Amino acid sequence: MATTTIKQAREKKNLSQGFLAESLGISRPTYSNIEKWLSNISLGQAVRLTSILDLTLDDLLGETRAEWIGNIDREKFKEILKNCISFWSDNDGRITKTKLAKLAYLIDFWWYYRHLESLTGLEYRRIQHGPVSDTYFWVLEELQNSESIGIQPSGRAALIENISPPASDRLNEEELAFVKEVCAKWKGKNTEEIVRFTHEQLPWKICRENDIIPYEIITQEDPENVC
After folding, report:
1. What number of H helices and E strands is found in the chain?
2. Per-residue model confidence (pLDDT) at position 37
3. Backbone angles phi, psi at 161, to 5 degrees
4. Taking a C-beta distance cutoff of 8 angstroms, is the pair 70, 50 a contact?
5. Which domain CATH number covers 17?
6. Is the CB of residue 219 less than 8 Å from the CB of residue 204?
7. Number of domains comprising the chain
8. Cβ neighbours for 174, distance < 8 A, ≥ 6 positions apart
9. Which of 84, 110, 139, 213 would give a disulfide with 227, using CB separation of 3.0 to 4.6 Å?
10. What are the two backbone dihedrals, phi and then psi, of residue 72, each rounded to the nearest 5 degrees?
11. pLDDT higher than threshold 50 for residue 90
């Protein structure tokens, strides 16, 4: 499917970008990027978009699906998550779902701050308890379904533990040491502390609710506020 399909479907219904942006709960520039396939959307947003435009998910993703997720190294991301569980879990070997999501974000954005490139290729979204990647939730489900991790509810939280050890072929020595460094910096901190820290960063403050957060913004942050 050509990348103009969404635009053509919208124009056929005489709908503006602003109308669809409001319907999806995002900014008009973010929606414009969706039409150009420069920005990712959540599954829920994709479903709403197909309903409004009378498209199917196959229509929406179609031939561009590979482009949509092609720059994401999901297996590397899985190894990062499993190493985070190992390096930063509490004494019982478990970590909360929210803490793990925050570590993933800090790892990717601190790596970008140092190297001017993402470690995983993931996009992170500004949501209420974010920033977080849509892919995070899908990857957790894949890991759970493959019995690589276990997820247990604990009140309002979810506790995650490794069932099998992390793989050893997706991260090089520098990357593994970096993951360990970030985990060590935040080990022992509670969920509120790490959430508050990410919400005080420029990427969170500048972006609107549900926007994809550009990595480049983190380069404008003071070094002590990056991780």
Report:
1. 12, 3
2. 62
3. -140, 155
4. no
5. 1.10.260.40
6. no
7. 2
8. none
9. 110
10. -100, 125
11. yes
Assigned token pair, 225: 């506020």
C-alpha 80/C-alpha 78 separation (Å) is: 5
Q: Peptide bond before 131: cis, by omega within 30 degrees of 0? A: yes
CA–CA separation, 42 vs 125, rounded Å? 9
Q: Show which of 16, 44, 69 is a domain's final residue.
A: 69
Which two tokens mark 154? 């604990």
Mention every residue, 6+ apart, whose C-beta is less than 8 A from residue 140: 81, 97, 149, 151, 160
Answer yes or no: are the C-beta atoms of 221 and 202 closer than 8 Å.
yes
- Residue 34: what are its φ and ψ, rounded to 5°? -60, -40
Which residue range(s) make up the domain with 59?
A: 5-69
**Six-digit token string for 209:** 């609710």
Centroid of chain to Cα 118: 12
pLDDT digits (tens, 9 = 90+) for 22-68: 888 888 888 887 777 655 666 567 767 878 888 776 676 554 444 44
